[in-house]
Amino acid sequence: MTGGFVSGALVQIVQRLAPGGIEVLALELARRLPGSNPVFSLDGDTQSLVESWSALAQAGMVEGLDKAPGLRPGLVVSLAARLRALKPRAVLLHHIGPLLYGGLAARLARVPVVAYVEHDSWHYDAPRQRTLTAALARIVRPQVVAVSQAVAEVSRTVMPGAPVRVILNAVDTERFRPAPRAAARAALGLPAEGALVGSAGRLEPVKGHDVLLRAMVEVPEARLVLIGQGSAGEALRHLADQLGLAGRVHFLGHRGDMPQVLPALDLFCLPSRNEGLPLSVIEAQACDMPVVASSVGSLREAVCPVSGRLVPPEDPAALAAAIRAGLAAPPPVAPRAFVRAHFCWDRMLAAYEDLMAGRPPC
Fold first, then answer.
1. In whole angstroms, how far apart are CA 129 and each of 132, 135, 161, 250, 348?
2. Which of 59, 177, 215, 216 could hold 316 in an S-S bridge, CB 3.0 to 4.6 Å?
3. Angle at 173 between CA 282 and CA 339, to 5 degrees
């Protein structure tokens, strides 16, 4: 997969190709746009990345650049040479590391369109991040893509003068759609009866799964399904035991078959402390599932205002009340319609085609 690249429409650069919303979006964008669209990972070598994430074996042109720890100016030079050979009409940079290495390399290679995709804004609470991003924006002069209006507002303050356009994330509503609940539960070995609340995402403190576990103490009529893996996994299992929830919490680990997993649930919950515009919430709603989420970041834009419920972060009691309300009655409108109206792939692809062609946003 590291050889055989030909001139393509788009090169994307991420920090590390591992299961996550940004990485899934980059792979899907590369697949759907016409032409050869390589995805580079700053961290990791190609073989180890593919071995760690089976989806990469079918992803087409992906390459790990195996960046060593610390600042590596030589990587800018070698990456610029790769870009000159590929001759893309655009480079898309996801987050700060790719902006540094990929942005400088793209300018050295004279790539016509260089764009920086900002997926969230909470990391700008750190002054060092704001300062570094502002400095790189002045040097690289990228066009800025924000995945939500909230992220766009912050990006304009961090990178004043940079052109910022909003391109909402998208999900495939043909893959993510309602399906028989009983069959989905049986395939996963989950109980056929009773309510199931689910949450999908990295098991990391920022996702607030500990808050969700505490909330579930007050929702005794339901079980909890946690989908994902991460550094907080063992701590969450220990907390579930402490709270007396061990028999009601199912840890499924990372799943590559979310279109088959989500229909097993009755309600989706994302109790994040900070968040961008998460695909998991949009995917759940595409399956016509009500959502309860923290009122942080771009979740205010991602959750259907009629069928969903937003609660303050770090508030198990409010989260529990919203979950109970969501389970008690079906949503008054189908959240799938909300997703199809705002987060469809046709609209997203058209917006990126406009970006690569140098056309202003609609």
1. 5, 10, 18, 37, 28
2. 215
3. 40
